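Postdoc handover notes: sequence design on the structure in folder B. Input tokens:
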């Protein structure tokens, strides 16, 4: 499975309490005193506690050479930063999402999705410096000081999106999608540090500026984003112009040549898994399929899927309802349902033992009361089924505020009752796609080169963005581009 990012409203973070005592510390980057609730020792301990959670959430992408490359460059950059003595850790995680993020204490993560979208080593180095900057400037600590840290690990420093969903062990922990947003000042400072660090180890930071053009296209372009003044995250195009300016200033201070290394980087990611890994579950035509576990279910229309190794979640279009599917403990659906009721103090209004597509199941409907930090009580309503299949108990839940539940009940119940054994061989045998680096045989446009490489017409723009180019760009013979191999080329994405 894999994780997709999304934004949820206040109702799913009603449960956060602040349990920390404030202190003051010196910011390692600015040298100024700042309010801090977390000592460096505690910061490192947090990172060490969160790291296993991140690894469990995403999984490590098994590519020793690429992992080694990330670790080598990360350590080189961290060594010249303001905090070289942190126990820096750099991991490549198994997610198609285009993102990079950090947790306190020097733990930095890059997804395979963002590695696929870099088009040279300098772009990678600039983003790496940006994420290191979030740690050296203690942005992760400053934001986490405002959140409860006792039960749910938070991560931050997203290069593309400012929030990441985290989940815990019980239903309510799983439903609490907590957000760690860096304001424009913090993001701008990390952009500056990205330029500083990548320039210091010899990379052309102007290429980092160019990568913001890719992020702009991935986010739908300027016409599909909120105005900059309405967002705490800087507009990619504004960041691009600022980083270009900073890079030029940094390079004016030295006469050295700065490295880009386009071809070397592309050769490095040849064969990288691209997009969804079918073995971890995939979406096709409004349904979710999991070949390894041999099940499928339908997704409510227009709901957003959030997929991780430990659970699948779906979010309503208005973001006021959520569904979750994960494994429950034990092998008895009745016992699993009883445990769920006790753990979440569920006020049960109905229970059913009706089978779901021939599979033994127990379904309960009930309410959960929660208090926010202002002492206000919110009532959440859930429909949850425990389905016995393949030696496992699958828990499928739908959740919303009680007063809104009827709006979503039919869709949630329909999705739950669609859970079934997967027998379609075409779905079971779907193969993953991988990046394939090909050499352009003759001069021409990117569009023609992609078509010659077997990229379907419907996916030309997707691969233009992946290559950081426009379809109309003229390419010389011998130019390297990204195409793909494997997968189901003719299936819609």
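Designed sequence:
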């Amino acid at each position: 499975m894999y994780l997709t990012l999304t934004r949820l409203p206040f109702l799913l973070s009603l449960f956060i309490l602040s349990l920390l005592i404030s202190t003051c510390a010196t910011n390692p980057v600015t040298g100024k005193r700042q309010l801090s609730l977390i000592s460096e020792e505690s910061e490192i301990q947090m990172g060490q506690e969160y790291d296993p959670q991140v690894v469990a959430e995403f999984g490590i992408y098994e590519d020793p050479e690429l992992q080694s490359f990330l670790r080598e460059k990360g350590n080189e950059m961290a060594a010249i930063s303001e905090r070289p003595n942190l126990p820096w850790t750099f991991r490549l995680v198994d997610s198609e999402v285009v993102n990079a993020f950090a947790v306190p204490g020097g733990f930095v993560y890059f997804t395979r999705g963002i590695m696929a979208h870099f088009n040279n080593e300098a772009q990678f180095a600039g983003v790496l410096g940006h994420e290191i900057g979030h740690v050296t400037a203690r942005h992760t600590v400053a934001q986490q000081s405002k959140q409860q840290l006792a039960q749910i690990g938070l991560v931050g420093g997203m290069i593309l999106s400012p929030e990441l969903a985290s989940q815990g062990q019980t239903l309510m922990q799983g439903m609490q999608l907590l957000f760690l947003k860096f304001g424009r000042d913090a993001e701008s400072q990390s952009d500056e540090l990205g330029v500083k660090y990548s320039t210091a180890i010899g990379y052309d930071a102007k290429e980092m500026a160019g990568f913001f053009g890719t992020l702009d296209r991935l986010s739908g372009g300027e016409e599909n984003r909120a105005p900059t003044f309405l967002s705490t995250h800087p507009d990619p195009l504004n960041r691009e112009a600022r980083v270009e300016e900073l890079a030029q200033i940094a390079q004016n201070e030295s006469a050295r040549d700065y490295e880009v290394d386009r071809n070397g980087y592309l050769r490095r990611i040849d064969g990288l898994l691209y997009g969804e890994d079918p073995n971890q579950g995939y979406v096709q035509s409004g349904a979710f399929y999991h070949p390894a576990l041999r099940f499928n279910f339908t997704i409510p229309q227009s709901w957003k899927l959030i997929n991780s190794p430990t659970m699948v979640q779906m979010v309503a279009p208005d973001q006021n309802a959520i569904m979750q599917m994960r494994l429950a403990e034990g092998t008895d659906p009745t016992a699993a349902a009883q445990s769920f009721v006790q753990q979440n103090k569920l006020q049960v209004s109905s229970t059913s033992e009706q089978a779901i597509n021939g599979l033994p199941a127990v379904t309960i409907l009930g309410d959960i009361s929660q208090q926010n930090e202002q002492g206000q009580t919110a009532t959440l309503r859930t429909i949850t089924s425990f389905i016995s299949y393949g030696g496992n108990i699958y828990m499928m839940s739908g959740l919303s505020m009680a007063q809104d539940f009827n709006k979503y009940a039919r869709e949630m119940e329909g999705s739950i009752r669609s859970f079934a054994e997967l027998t379609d061989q075409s779905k079971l045998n779907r193969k993953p796609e991988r990046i394939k680096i090909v050499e352009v045989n003759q001069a021409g446009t990117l569009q023609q080169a992609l078509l010659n490489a077997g990229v379907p017409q419907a996916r030309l723009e997707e691969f233009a963005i992946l290559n950081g180019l426009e379809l109309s760009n003229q390419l010389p013979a011998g130019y390297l581009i990204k195409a793909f191999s494997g997968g189901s080329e003719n299936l819609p994405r």
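Context for whoever picks this up: The CA atoms of residues 398 and 409 lie 8 Å apart. Don't rerun without checking with the PI first.
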